[in-house]
Amino acid sequence: MDQQVMQRLKRQLEQELQEIEQRLDESERPQATELSNYDNHPADNASDLTDQLTEMAIDEHRGDDAEEIKEALQAMNDGTYGKCAVCGEDIPIGRLEAMPKALTCVEHAEKKEEHLRPVEEDLLSSTPKSDDFIELEEFGSSDTPQDKI
């Protein structure tokens, strides 16, 4: 990899890391808008809680980004930057310019993303299996006799 490109990517990563850390330092947890819950509507409590959870999720995402950037900067210092951490192949310059914190090639990045899906998706589906549905019907349903005609 060209040294000028490497230096430009390093500066970009350092600047992005600095911005993220500054935002994390300035970030405040939203406080409840009411002093007491005694006369508070449940929807107001829910809005406060949603705001708090959203801010916490954003901060967590920023923290994850900061860790990925630190890993990329460490790879630059170690001399392994630009090589896929899984297969060892060169990562295309276009990918690194688009996403400087990338440590894997596109093929292995997609496999990494697959594991981010919730585990529940493997167990739950919107359409019941036919055998399960028949088994459930044996226990009855809320259908009335006219529904079965």
From TrEMBL:
<dbReference type="Pfam" id="PF01258">
    <property type="entry name" value="zf-dskA_traR"/>
</dbReference>
<dbReference type="GO" id="GO:0008270">
    <property type="term" value="F:zinc ion binding"/>
</dbReference>
<feature type="region of interest" description="Disordered">
    <location>
        <begin position="19"/>
        <end position="49"/>
    </location>
</feature>
<feature type="zinc finger region" description="dksA C4-type">
    <location>
        <begin position="84"/>
        <end position="108"/>
    </location>
</feature>
<feature type="domain" description="Zinc finger DksA/TraR C4-type">
    <location>
        <begin position="79"/>
        <end position="113"/>
    </location>
</feature>
<feature type="compositionally biased region" description="Basic and acidic residues">
    <location>
        <begin position="20"/>
        <end position="31"/>
    </location>
</feature>
<keyword id="KW-0863">Zinc-finger</keyword>
<feature type="region of interest" description="Disordered">
    <location>
        <begin position="116"/>
        <end position="149"/>
    </location>
</feature>
<keyword id="KW-0862">Zinc</keyword>
<dbReference type="InterPro" id="IPR037187">
    <property type="entry name" value="DnaK_N"/>
</dbReference>
<keyword id="KW-0479">Metal-binding</keyword>
<dbReference type="InterPro" id="IPR000962">
    <property type="entry name" value="Znf_DskA_TraR"/>
</dbReference>
<protein>
    <submittedName>
        <fullName>Molecular chaperone DnaK</fullName>
    </submittedName>
</protein>
